Amino acid sequence: MAKLSKEEIIEAIKELSVLELNDLVKACEEEFGVSAAAGVVVAAGPAAGAAAEEEKTEFDVELTSFGEKKMDVIKVIRTITGLGLKESKELVEGAPKMVKEGASKDEANDIKAKLEEVGATVTLK
To answer: What angle do CA 35, 36, 40 make, to 5 degrees?
Structure first.
């Protein structure tokens, strides 16, 4: 098989449908043992023993479904995370995916409200 140039690969990808692109990303993740999700910095939590007795102060925000307004959800994800269009689209289409880890209660609730406002389903963990 002839080696394809980077430009030829990009042109081939541009011709894929969203579903085909999603399948390609999943196949690449499995083949190479990587994740296409953007890296998220995780804040260090309190010691496990003390944390069980205290009120939870850090929350993980998980996008479980993008609902019927995918483009609106992608726009909100871009605003929240600062990711580019491609990365935001991949995160949304790969739901369930973590949007933010180690967020404060207020920040987590704010993110959840913004996403639910555009029809997404969000879980705080």
So the answer is: 80
CA 39 to chain centroid: 9
- Contact (CB, 8 A) for 111 and 100: yes
Tokens of 1: 């098989």
29: tokens are 């993740």
Q: Tokens for 9?
A: 């690969």
3-class SS of residue 15: coil
For residues 39, 41, 47 and 52, what is the CA-based torsion angle, rounded to 10 degrees? Answer: -70
Write out pLDDT tens, residues 55-102: 788 889 999 998 899 999 999 999 988 989 999 999 999 989 998 888
pTM of the entire structure? 0.54
Max Cα separation, the chain?
61
Strand partners, 59: 103
Checking 20-26 for CB contacts under 8 A at 24+ apart, the result is 22/93, 22/94, 25/90, 25/94
